[in-house]
Fold these 4 entries.
Entry 1:
Amino acid sequence: MVFCLKRIIGIILIASMLAITVVGCSGDSGTATTKEVNFADAGWDSNKLHNAIAGLVAEELWDYEIKETPGSSTVLHEGLLKGEVDVHMEVWTDNLATYSEDLAAGKLQELGTNFDDNNQGVYVPRYVIEGDAERGIVASAPDLKSIQDLKNYPDVFKDEENAGMGRMYGAIPGWQVDEILYKKFMYLGMEENFIYFRPGSDAALSTAITSAYEKGEPIAAYYWEPTWLLGLYDMVLLEDEPFDQETYLEGKTAMPSVDVTVGVSNEFGDAEENKEFIDFLSNYETSSALTSEGLGYMQESGSDYKETAKWFLNEHPELLDAWLTPEDAEAMKTALNQ
Amino acid sequence: MNWLYEFPFEIPMDLKAIDASVRAFSVEYDGFFSVIRGGLVNLVSFFNNVLDMIPWAVFILLVFLAGWRVSRKISKGLLFAVLLLFIGAVGFWSLMNETLAIILASVLISLLIGFPIGIFISTGDRANNIMRPILDTMQTMPVFVYLIPAMLFFGLGKAPAVIATTIYAIVPMIRLTNLGIRQIDGEIVEASKAFGSTKLQSLIKVQIPQALPTIMTGVNQTLMMAISMVVTTSMIGATGLGMEVLIAVNRVEIGRGLVSGTSVVIIAVVLDRLTQGLVKRSEVKTDG
């Protein structure tokens, strides 16, 4: 009798495993006919916000199913070239070492500029230069104005691991701006009394700046706008020589505003069914100020990206008129008001 | 029926309050944390300076001799020496010293703290039951979850790197010390008690020597776990071979990644064989 029971239990187990496998497999094939768009999610807030805005339009007007693929910017760029990622709303063209060759070789399609009025460079908290009476902070470097002045203050921006040297936080290792910034560091002769500290990751860099700012300590670090960090903390961008196309790569002048573009993979861009979405993306244009506005609203109201996207489009109906045909713009506005 | 597939309720959690309190904590106890940070940085710098002071030829010779002694075969010693020569030949010698300094500092702290804890929890079941979930959490909690607060308290660079590595690497030491002592034949302990030894004497002279192979395995595993954290610590600013790997990965420079990755593997293999050799030699002879 025991033998029979074991056999029955065994058969039931195998049968249920088979049933679950069949059910699990059939669940996928049902969605094969809906249109899908795979956004690149480089991890930072403005990228996620633009994904949410474009995704909202795609969902409402053309019934797309939205997917996001997270990754670092270099990995996502490779994904875009291969067609694994469909749309990248924020291609920071200067931070990708191979971008111009890839574009010239036709490996991806550039659909126009998202925004190109951003800043990047070395920031210090405002209280280092002006002091902060409310928090009881005395200005430790009141004459600090430009990055050329920075090397006079190793005792203000102390490096705790190397006595007597100052510390300047560089960019994320691997970004092109990290190489440029390092060349600038050497060009200004800062290696005499400063250490160029590579933070290792975006999380580490923002944590370092957050920690120093909360404690009221001085810190000199690379950062870029538009970001939640610079929207939240009052930091000053150190001045530099006016931008010069020829020499900025060697670090001799200020960084140019990066041309942040919208890129699509060849596979997605050539598909006939995506034509209307591609037209919309080609007209998609915002600005650093608009993006910061959205991020600031998000931080203050605690909304998620989708809600912020809705709020953003309601605040700026003129953007919908600029991006879409009149009928589509009207349809979108109606859908938002529901 | 929708509630069967979608959770019908959500607990309202004020995560922002947690953020604010952690930040306030980091500001208030800044002095205390700076002291710990200074201590850790000094420890790592000490190891780094010692390693840098040894000329590379002397270092390779020492590894050759150690490999030969531990494995009784001259071929093993030669193999280790040649592997280390490779690291120097690709220009990573000083980076290797930086990485080794962090690893050695973390392993030292893990041994100093883990060994007593392991002995303590081997004495009773209650202590064991309390420690086990703590150890499980230390090994499986995603590293960045406790690293971000660590960075807020201790800054970037060597100090949080040592802390992160220690939290991960101390666990095998504790577990295997506990296991080693519990696994001793009860009769041997009884015999030692019958001959009039106190608990402490029994511990030091009988139990620990009997458990030594397992404890040495714990040391070996602690070392391996510490080396596995090398790249993660580079993401919080620790320089060395890990940073090389990170840069290579971020720039999609596959060749550079392979070379630096291989260097890390070589360090792991050499240290593993050396400490495993010590395991074999520590086995107490039980026959005659």
Entry 2:
Amino acid sequence: MTSVARVYVATGAVLLFFVLWATIATSPWPSATRRPEVDALALREAVVRQRAAAAQQRYEARWAAYRAALARNRALTVSVSAPPVRIVQVPPVATTRSS
Amino acid sequence: MVATTFTGMGTTIELRVDAGPGPGTDASLERARSVFDHVERTCSRFDDTSELMRLNHAGRGRVSAVLAEILRLALDGRERTGGLFDPTVHDAVVSAGYDRTFPELGVSGEPVPAPAGGEVELDGDHVVLGPATRIDLGGIAKGYAVDRACEVLAASGPCLVDAGGDIAVRGTWAVGVEGGPTLELTDAAVATSGRDRRAWRAGDGPAHHLIDPRTGAPAVTRTLRATVVAATAAEAEVLAKAAFLGAAVGAPTVLVRDDGRVTVAGGLT
């Protein structure tokens, strides 16, 4: 083998080494065994997402109820036409009490 | 001044007319008294033969003009107060232990909250109650009777009708608020909702007749009494209940807390 051929072979070997290394490092094939901690994390994420959606729904319902109650209270406040009344310092004829 | 006092609707009722004695005044007083008898016979929840209890048992039917009118006032009140006043708290009042006339009441069992907000359809004189819905018109029926009796008496002169604290006046009268100021009312009415009367022992703790429709149980509040002035006693009843449960009702209001502190609102100074 000539020295030129040896250089080509060495270069090819180095190139092959790096290509194999890069291929193994990226591991494009699926893992043969499932990792339980990853499964547990995925399950936990699903549960948290579900709880967040439920909490958001409750929050929106309560906000809507609060807005409705606020509107009713405002309507109540403006809907009363109060008769004339004032505080006086005279003996009362009758007294209102819990009935 | 002519006055008469009698017992009705579970309380003491006083009628006063600023007029001289005579057959006309006596007739007005008698007619005003009969208003209370009629409303009590119609709306009592302690009499199974009353029109209200027959409706509660049947769940539907045609009702008299008086019952329809009181029911309409009550449903209007529920609408206006966002449900703080609710005539469908009957089962909650009974569950809390108030299941017989107050003088007959002793210690009752542990109160069990019962839902309010029952469905009631009122179409003219035809009423349909929702499933498990029963009506209690106690306070507002008394307010209605006070208003009608005051109308009757007003024909004889300035007058005051007082049914256990639900008061309506024609003319100008000084009316005291228990634990609070004295108010000068002119052609107006006043009512007080409080937990210091019609209260009893239930289970290990105290109970009272003012149900919070949001919980279906006796209201828990630092307010002892709420007094509200309105154009009619029926309206004052509704607003006093709402004020007792913490609503700002926009009418002249006196709140007495359980530590004795008094707050006035709604234009009172």
Entry 3:
Amino acid sequence: MRIGRRSLIAWRWFVVLLLTYSLQLITLSGCSPTYPKDKIKESIIRLCKKEYKLDVKVETVGKTVAIYLPLANLLDFTFALTPEAGEKLNQVILNVTRVVLSTDAKYNFYCLMAHDVKIPEIQIVIIKSVEDVRRFILGDISRGEYSKRMLIDMRVAPQAQKERAVKDVFSRMNIDNKWQESVMQDFFMSDPATLGDIGYWGGKFYVKDVKLDEFLAEQIANRFRLSFRDNKILGGALVLKLVKGVYIAGTQASGGSRYFRIEISAEPTTAEGFNSKTISDELFAFALKTSYDVIHGYRFEDYDYVEIKSINDGRSSTVLKEDLDNYRPKRTKIEDVMVFDSF
Amino acid sequence: MLPQKFKVWLMYLKLYKVRVLIAIAVIFLITAAIWGMMSLESFYRNQTLAMMPLQFIMVALNALIFVYMYMTLFSSRWGGASKNTKMKGDVVNVKWSDVIGMEAAKTEAWEVVQLIKDRAKVKQIGGKIVKGLLMLGPPGCGKTYLAKAIATESGMPFLSMAASEFVEMFVGVGASRVRGLFKKARELASGYGGCIVFIDEMDAIGRNRTFSQFGGQETNSTQNQLLVQIDGLQAKEENVIVIGATNAPEESLDPALLRPGRFDRKIYIDRPNLEEREKIFAFYFSKVKYDKSLDIKRLARKAVYKTPADIENIVKESALITARDDKETIEFRHVSEAIERIEMGLKHRRNLVPKEKEKIAFHEAGHAVVLYLLHPTEDVFKASIIGRREALGVVHHNPREEWFTHSREVLIANIKTSLAGYVSEKIKFGTTSDGCASDFRKAMAIAHGMVWSLGMSNAGLVGDYGLYGTTGHTSELAESTKEQLNKETQSILQGCLKNVEDLLKKEWNIVEHIAGELLAKEELEYDDIEAIFKDYGKIQTQS
């Protein structure tokens, strides 16, 4: 006869059952990863095939996933990427992104290698950080910043170059071809040491486990290259010939220090050349700012200093980690943090 | 025949169909949501889950804003659903034994309870089923309490609503609420075998209907709906009993409501008698700490004409005074102060010149002496020269027992008591003040009523001459008769004045004594006053 109490009991039961039901549904089906770590390769291959009818090959090295995509018309006669190829590359990138984000395996980078089946020597290599992709999807970084963070390189496959050189030498020296393969395997087709050596040649992946430090060094150089022309002072005064970024980690030569070395080769377009201190200073300031943006963008701490070298005018500068840390937050002037010397 | 348990579940489904639908919808939505989540890749699933707490907060905030706006815009005053309908079952929990101080009403109500319980038996015999019960009587006498006890005793659900909640400015809203109330009652009755609908302050919708073009349609339509719901044609007759309660006289209610088949039974719940008051005092004192030497019988005697609500109020007020007095238990003086505060208001001390204070003391002493020595039915409860409200002093008196009629002697005693202040002032100071204005008004009104309406004049004039005034035929009353009536009125007043003068002169030493005590203490309790009279060898007049 107790309406109030019965109603209360019914309500409580309903809430308890509802919670149990929801919890069961969530735990039974909602907590497992979509792509288990032991099925990463199959997952990427299956997705590309199923959704875009693309045949890809996949390899994993350490915490890096490498994907090889052969295409019929990768480049046009101007050696530019065709729109169709661009679309297919995006489709593969999307699938790889889905898989690496929804797996229980911890992958830090993925490399997409694509080449034209007619000219396999020319390859496009795209290296992306998984964390960058995640942050972009979550809206933590902008689309512009996201594009700057990926490494895109069109190059002749290093292994192809080596093979051609070996074949040429064997041919000229008239050596038996049976030694050719052995020599190439032993000396020229060894595992890649730098990001520049990554490629796919002769049905084989040449991939290394990408480390954040080398990725950042390469990204500094890449960003410098991309933004150089937009710089009002530098764009008109210098022609950028080369920029190279490396991370040197505690070698004997470096005295155990860990640092980024940015080497810049830029030729002046005016007679004044590097005699103008303003231009030279701007070059260093620009390199420093780019380094700061990249290193702090990733909150990278494992370095002692950044070394910037201008090959053409022989100037060199090092910026200590502490000074670089203070550079932007405390609005320290560039001349206060840079120590110049000549080499 | 469906099993009882199934019937109860069916009733629940009917009663809470909206809730059941909502519950099903909630289960469906949760299933769909989880199903949808399952189809997401784990990264996007985690992303969605991570955002859920924020979404919950946002949804809760939106809901709060919506509810606030809904309540502001669509509250019941704009014709929305009535919020005050209360549904109670055994939780009412007022036991029959808890109802005290209305034995006659309880006996009648018990019969109704038995009829409600044995409905099937009554139907089998072919007897008439009780559909309504109307409880009449002064406010605070326990009508609602008795209704709750009936609900508990019969073991039926109890729907309570004040009739004023039906009344709205929009025509049709009240009727709609009556329909809603009875719909709910019938649904409950289908599961529990019966339901009690209690409508308090019945006169709000039950007064005589007006058939004029200048309004009243809303009340009429509400009442019409009530009549239909109590005794109208229904698809299935459920055991719904309506209990109405009102303080209004029975005549003011619409005859259609009172006819057999609607409110078949009428129970008059009157103020409690001496014995009942004693029980009520004992009941409320049992809930507080009180001095065991406190004479509850004496308090019951003092609380003549008090309702149970008044008695409860007296005990509560006494507890407050005790707490303020920093005492552990309620003493007689606390109760006395509580009664005084309730009846006379809070003390209001004025700065009086000694001469005026003396005048007031003698005025009140005159009242006290005459009341004590001449009044056949009243006790002096307290004499005071501390101002309360408009009065500068007061002699508070109480009837010793309920009298529902007043004899000539009592009325004469009332006149004498009223005139005593004037006489006392005159004897002591040789002059009088305007302090006796209200006394004269009261004395004159009684004397006038005795002569003009009650046939109590010395000249033997009988009949209610006041009727000439009320029926608008004053011209029919002869001037000589009016003159005679007025002379008789004055004769009674003069006679009383002479008697009071003689008495006070005779007992002037008592007047002086009481006045002196009042000047010294400002207030005298019943015991103090009685002690003074005893000192002079006087005993109180008994009826």
Entry 4:
Amino acid sequence: MQTDLLCSLIPLFPLIGFAINGLGFRKVPASLVGPISSAAALASFAVSLMLFSGFSGQPVKATLFDWISVGSLHINFSFQIDQLSLLMLLIVTGVGSLIHIYSIGYMKHDEGFGKFMAFLNLFLFFMLLLVTGSNYVIMFIGWEGVGLCSYLLIGFWNKNVNYNNAARKAFVMNRIGDLGFLLGIFLLITTFGSVEYTDIFEQATRFAVGDKMILAITLLLFVGAMGKSAQIPLYTWLPDAMAGPTPVSALIHAATMVTAGIYMIVRSNVLYTLSPVTLEVIGVIAIATAILAASIGLLQNDIKKVLAYSTVSQLGYMFLGLSVAAYSSGMFHVITHAFFKALLFLGAGSVIHAMSDEQDIRNMGGLRKHLPLTFITFLLGTIAIAGIPPFAGFFSKDEILAHVFLHNKALWGLGLVGSAMTSFYMFRLLFLTFFGEFRGTEAQRHHLHESPATMTLPLIVLAVLSVAGGLLNLPGGGWLSHFMEPLFAGSAQVSPEAFGHEIDHSTEYMLMGISTAVAIGSAIAAYVVYISRHAVPAPESAERSGIAKLVYNKYFVDELYEIAIVRPIRALGDALYNFGEFIIDGIVNGVAWIVRAASAQLRLLQSGSIGFYVFAMVFSIAVIVIVRFFVRF
Amino acid sequence: MLTLSLILLPVVAATLLLLIKSPAVKTLALGAALVELALAAYAFATFKADAQMQFEFDYPWIAGAGIRFSGGIDGISVLLVLLTGLLTPLITLSAFGREYDRPSTFYSLILYMQAALMGVFTARDAFLFYLFFEAALIPVYFLAAMWGGEKRIAVTFKFFIYTIFGSLFMLVALVYLYYQTGVPGKPGVHSSAIVDFYNLNLTPAAQGWVFWAFFIAFAIKMPVFPFHTWQPDTYVESPTPATMLLSGIMLKMGVYGLIRFLLPIVPAGLETWGLLATTLSVTGIVYGSIIAIRQRDMKRLIAYSSFAHVGLMAAGVFSQTANGLQGALIQMLAHGINVVGLFFVAEIIFGRTNSRFLDQLGGITRTTPKLTVYFMILLLGSVALPLTNGFVGEFLLLNGVFAYNNWLGAVAGLTIILGAVYMLRMFQKSMFGPTSARTETFDDLSGAESWVLLPLAVMVFWIGIYPNSFLKVTEPAVLNLLQYVVK
């Protein structure tokens, strides 16, 4: 089949699924809703596999139509299939399909089930546009579209005001990033006269490293990435986004949408390689985000919040990789993270399902006996994210840290600290949830049950991938880095020295040894605290002081934003409305009066020419007089 | 002939309606508006995408003075003709839900208004333009003053005087320009054809003051900061159909005027004062948006959002770029659709709950899947989500402003963020959350209401997904106009 047809089919299937379940909400029988939406996702997955297997190594472009064109600027509605979009396609449709299937079990009793599945399909549609678009504006369509779906799904249970606020916060914070992205696109247009990737990257190779314009472009685009991929200072929406149903957290807020920022930078790697300053900035923000979020994760007690902060932190690691031009390592971590974080969220969903919507790990414990499949898969996911060999997370994180080591030892040290925290908070979560004595209510204990097959099957598949995902890119030139190499040809051309460092083997083994030791050490520490000593986190009401208070309250960042940004804007709004308008009205009235007096002078100057002027004047005045005469009701 | 029919048909229909005293008057008005829509759609469909005037009419008016009764449609006006044709039947239909006193007067005023608007957008003679520009004020003034809210008399009188006052500046400028035209060797022969003004060689001083005369006239109409203080009260106090006419179509007279007169006639004036004018426009975007965030009255909130949006259109025009102008033209169409839809949603909610205050609403979505979907679609258009109509306009406008001045472009871009804040807040507080006593029993859309919103929703996506159906039509005229700007 023709490639352009296949390209268009990929986003089309979910769009059709959305149309059927969306327009037919409450009309399509509940038993068909799930199969329709899952079939849509699976069909896209199948087409993606076809494209992948038939991929020749050369990028393929498919143009549907000329979308917006003004003067010399043409923005095509077109797709580009290359190594990067294929990888993203497989993740998005593959993990996406599994989560659709899982959602059937998780959401089928909800009164908005049809709407939920329709929104998931719509999300896939936009996400697929994002990763297959052949220019920045199509990427932007997807970018904003997934933001909309994220908004709709976070606030899915819209009777709850807090959930709605979380949804709105997510949308608005993302929009802050989107403004950066949009301005970046404008600068791209100014600089390159095009928004097409191929045009821009081809021209970019003629720029010098450190070019000011490229610096501005890459920084602005990165602002967009900060919003979507939850980096400091735009990360606070992601933990709140946990208000959405758990499959949403797994799909949108862990495996796919939040990695769009990484995708964007890998896509634009030539530009970023041209701008070392931007890479430095990304590195600083990435490591700060990784550590800050991980430290907050240490003390969270909501099973989903722990995973949310973990996601923020892991995204930091991905950006850390990008900041040292290790683009394929960043992508590698995107892939493995999609496996194990989706697994962990879905596992958490299974727990929440069994616990009658309880999310507080202080009220759990001992669940491994009741949820054996969930437990085993969650355990595998935990080992994978903690970075213990030979599971997937070990290889991808280690690859990032190895590249960072070559670039900057201090950054590497900090990365290791974050890695230690990751292992600790994950094992803490695992132990508190599945080990020890059950701490919930009698009613909850009575209701405990393993989830249905539609939910456990995706867990098993993802667990296998989390265990074996490392095979994609084993140390010493694995398949993935080889596959992705053509993407970085431009980068290698503009800055050979910043790109493609080889690590010698002894260093590599040493680094692996250190990170493994750190991960296992942290796991043991967690074991000692939560298994040997049976520690349970203090209840909500407990007094906390010093650093514990600061961390437990997430460093009061939300409060800071509230005081420094939200309230001043509200106050300004009130002030402008109550006083500003009044003052302007007064001034305008006064000025108008003066100008009218002056125009009377002007009229005298024009006294030689009467004619039509007088006629028109008289007409206007007559209109006023007539109207005033009639309007006395 | 087509253009003249577009002006005369509503006049004739409206005049006949005044004579009818039966309940069928609203249906007849709708029928007339639909025939007009068919004409406008025909004009749009058969319009040739070039820079020429089409469907022209031209008769002597004040023959001795070179003033002609002439009109036509070109690329600058074609979308506005379409907009006027499209929105009038929808506005008429939207009024069916409420019983207005003296319906024949009410509906005939809507049609008179339409005739005047068609006249404004098609006039080729400057004084004819002025005549329609002023005439458009009268029907809407009566609509607001006779069927408006409690404070209608004071509010509408202010509106009337304010805008009439602004137009006087334009009149002075037009008369001045008229006297600058002429044929060498033939003193006393002048022309008031708008195109003849384009080729005048004005002194820098004249360029300056003519610039401000036009600017003030059009800035009041749109309105641009700080000439906006008449607007929120007028929008709130007017009956919703009048508010729709004002915000959906009438304010476009201001943007249209900037493009038709200010840009090609006083390019040097724009060169000197453009930065200040753009700054004022951009200030209005942020100022209006920040105020909108704090409004509790849905109508007032939409009024401030409209004020913010129109500021961006003005800034786009002042950028003197093809992007900015194309953006302004398509955004006029998009904004008209979105704002009329949003005001209608506010009217529907008011009709059922007797309140427009967000703190008294909530949870409406529980019983209203249709209303929720339409409201959401209009909201997305309004916040410029890609693939909706608002995106195309805002993307081009912001791109134009950004090209003109990076910093102003970035500040104007705040509309992306602030628009999301106030729109989502409005949606959330009315549709989501717990129900209130007023929203407990809330009926979903009636058939007539759906028929107003459906065409609007279709347009939201049509313009968003395939904007070239409109951009291609206006492009030659825009490029042609820009030649005068860089002369």
